[in-house]
Input
Amino acid sequence: MAADVVRSLGYLALGTRLKRIGERLQSQAQDVLAEEGVAYSVSLFPLMAALDRLGPLSVGELAEALGTSQPGVTRMIAKLKSDGLVACGPAAGDARMRPIMLSASGKALVQRSKLRAWKRIERAVERACAGLSGPLLTQLADLEEELAATPLRQRVGRKETRHAPA
Output
C-alpha cells in the first residue's frame, strides 16, 4: 500500500485532508439517499434545507446562510429550478433580491428526506465521530479510517423493509 502523502504533510495539507473527508462523506451519504429512493444529489440538500428552515431567501442570503459563494448558489438554484424543486418569487425592484422558495415538489422531497434519509445520515456520521479524541490531526486520521472501514450506510443498518398492511 502506498504511503498517504496528504496525511504525512500534517497541517500543511489540512485543506486537502478536509476536502477528502468531505468528498467521502458526500459519496457515502449519496449511497444512503439512494437506499431511501432519493435520486438527488446530496450536495443540493443544504440549500433545500436552508429554504425549508428559513423560508424564501435571495441568492445573497442563501450564500450567507450556506457559507458559500453566490455563483455556486446560483448554479444550485438553476439545477433545482430546472427540476421544478424551487421557484423564484416576484422581484421587488432589484432582480438579485428575488426570493427563492421551495416549490410544492421541493417541499415534498425535503419532507420525505427529513423523515428517514437525513436522520439516518446524521446518526451514521455521529457514530463515525463518536470515538474521536485528541489532537485534530489524530482525529482526522481516525475519522478517515472509520469511514474507510465502515461506510455510513453500514453504520445505520440496512433500510427497513415496510410490509404492506394485511
User: Anything to note?
Assistant: The first strand starts at residue 86 and ends at 88. Residues 160-166 have pLDDT under 50 and may be disordered.
